[in-house]
Here is the input.
Amino acid sequence: MRYVDEFRDAQLGQALAAEILAAADPGRPLKLMEICGGHTHSIYKYSLGDLLPASVELVHGPGCPVCVIPMGRVDDGIALARTDGLIFTCFGDMLRVPGSEQTLLDAKAQGADVRMVYSPLDALAIARNNPDREVVFFAIGFETTAPSTALTLRRAKAEGMANFTCMCNHVTIVPPLRALLESPDLRLDGFVGPGHVCTIVGTRLFEFIPADYGRPIVISGFEPLDILQSILMLVRQRQDGRCEVENQYTRVVPRDGNPRALEVMAEVFELRPHFEWRGLGSIPHSALGLSEAYREFDAEQRFDVPGVSVADPKACQCGEVLKGVIKPWECRVFGTACTPEHAIGTCMVSPEGACAAYYNYGRLAAPKQAV
Amino acid sequence: MCLAIPGQVVELIDADNQLATVDVVGVRRSVNVSLLADEDGGVAPGDWVLIHVGFALSRVDEDEARATLRLLAEMGEHYEQELEELKASAIE
Ligand code: SF4
Here is the structure.
């Protein structure tokens, strides 16, 4: 798999596809969910679905951090960003996410001091260089990203920074997966697991999927060949009557995750009683707020955040896309009212969103499983 | 923000704050390496790491790093935007 040119990659891809075809049982369809938006992106970009037999179907999961942010949190962010004298910082991906009336980019155009940062540590540097102004970092992301926010806050505390706070929107991957596994809408037969999340939490966290729900999961790398190999491993588990957590991405992912990351997360965060997810509704214990010890760095404590809850727009079917119930092209507004330039839903904004990935890459090929 | 980009550690510049200079396709920026601190003293110059939002997430070998860079280059615009954001980063 190393140092190979595209031709050889394509050959290896074909070989894996042939093995999948040989191992799959045409009479027992297999519906597999890739959890991570990075995988969704690669699957469309390399048309991996076209390499699979008809009995193996891929559906897209909820693991895109931008996609799951509900409108209410965007509106709250915009309200904060409008506070006089305040500097509001966030990742570039958040700028175009639609709130109920506008985006952070719109607020910036109207004079709010909204700044895009690459890292939470850049936000902290802005606070250090502007001691007379309040600086808020709008934190998003799953367990891959949460340790970075936690380490940044630990440093802010060590430096006694009085003008830096965080509006925390970190979410955890297990609760939405449990919700999906318990939902009658969708019967899933297995999962392609998120490689980068597992560098932090380890593969151990996913042992509940076989143990509690009798479904297999293979933690996967991000190259097209990694994803095909993970699918083959899932097909083989079915063939052998096995159901377990397997790790295709052993070259990066340890079973126990990263102890330093888990430790700093436990220090800085605590589970929120519940959190509103875009399209998925309120899910108990599914997101992180700041712990008692870090309350002084909590933007929601320091400022008057409206705390609005806004229903998803009627036309938007992001929830069904995030749950894998429909494919992007089955949404009523896909490619018409909702495009990357003028998105109605979040799945069209983030490059990891299924709708954006399909819009950019998949649209040209005829949808294989349409209707 | 979802990408993890490989880079090669050049030198540790701030031991207290665990910051290292890392070379990412020719761009040198400060990256926090505290997640990789371990019994053997953490990262060393020449090590390849995967970087996510200014933090080194894991160590990788050179083959893995190059294969990942090739994959990212194929992504085009999305990757270039991430690199632009990284270039604007001034972690201290
Ligand atoms: S097309 Fe737009 S509104 Fe429909 S599911 Fe996708 S992002 Fe949501």
User: Anything to note?
Assistant: The first strand of chain B starts at residue 5 and ends at 14. Chain B has one domain: 5-88.
